Amino acid sequence: SRSFRRVAYTDAFKALYRKRKETIERCFADAKEKHGMRFTTYRGLRKVTLQAMLTFAAMNLKKTSLMVLEKPRFSILF
């Protein structure tokens, strides 16, 4: 629509979209390349949906465990 085009060409929208591209699109690319989401061996919407949900849950667990195990970069006390 015209209103979207008017907003889409602003510098603020371009900056926001660049940020989105760095975060969201990277997540989907990692799922596809590193976690086997390029192809599925399952047939049917329910089975494929379950596979996708379990894959993204595993990715979130992996990310969370890395955040928990990561050493703090600074401390308020020391």
From TrEMBL:
Residues 8-63 form the Transposase DDE domain. InterPro entries: Tnp_DDE_dom (IPR025668). This is Transposase. It comes from Listeria fleischmannii FSL S10-1203.
